[in-house]
Amino acid sequence: MNAPDLERLRPRLPSPLEPVEDERFARHGLTLLLKRDDLIHPDLPGNKWRKLALNLRAAGGRPVLTFGGAYSNHLRATAAAGRLLGFRTVGVVRGDELAGRPLNPSLARCAADGMRLLFVDRATYRAKHEPAVLARLLGELPEDVYVVPEGGSNALAVEGCVELGRELAGVADTAAVACGTGGTLAGLAAGFPGPVLGVPVLKGGFLGADVRTLQEAAFGGPRGRWRLDERFHCGGYARTTPELEAFADAFGARHGLAIERLYVAKMLHALVTLAEEGAFAPGTRIAAVVTGSPEPQADSSR
Hints:
The chain has 302 residues and is α/β, with parallel strands linked by helices. The protein has helices at residues 23-26, 47-59, 73-85, 105-112, 122-126, 131-139, 155-168, 183-191, 207-219, 242-255, 261-276; strands spanning 17-20, 31-35, 64-68, 89-94, 116-120, 146-147, 174-179, 195-200, 225-228, 285-289.
């Protein structure tokens, strides 16, 4: 099989870098820049493009199996890539209680794009990386498949995100990104010469070890200067608070930008808080990576 030609999808690279006027930064002598990775491609936006591109080339046209929750952006991006580039996709979905129910808008989009959905119980999903569990899942399929981990984060994904850091070199002094599985942060930090802030959207304190593991797999050891601020997850993945919703609404109205809640809003809220705390020296140019845009159909799930 031949590797798919991703360039025929015309990704917008490098993604735009947009300065925004915001007095919450200006009064501290700071400049906020939005790195609009959400504009790379309408169906594979943001870090999804960067993390999937090298993996899809490695798959070489074989079916791709990957993992996600009921509202996974990664599952939607993988399914869309399959539709656009002509390869089959399989999504292993966390939660066997979802099987037999009407599909939510996110999973319905995956199915419409041709993705085969396999629903597994949560214990099986947690053990998905164990060889016996993965072998059992693969045994349900009639053909050889290429496996991409949850969130797309593996060594190839990390390598794909290095270019994000390089695009920001020389135009920003520090960068920030929201983190789910840590792959984007691991690559961004490797390509960017300055410090990088990761804002985890899950609680648990495990992400630092995951980022180190990903950098070890991709580069053989640590790269870049990065740190995590664990204060802004709002209770865990897919959770928000009234305060975060109000912040996102106000930021979006102020700057004419629809703000994705589960990742981008948490990262921007972290930056505003840190600016007020004096965490950045006057004169610092802060690049905030916008990794995705809202999925309007999925709003009712929150």
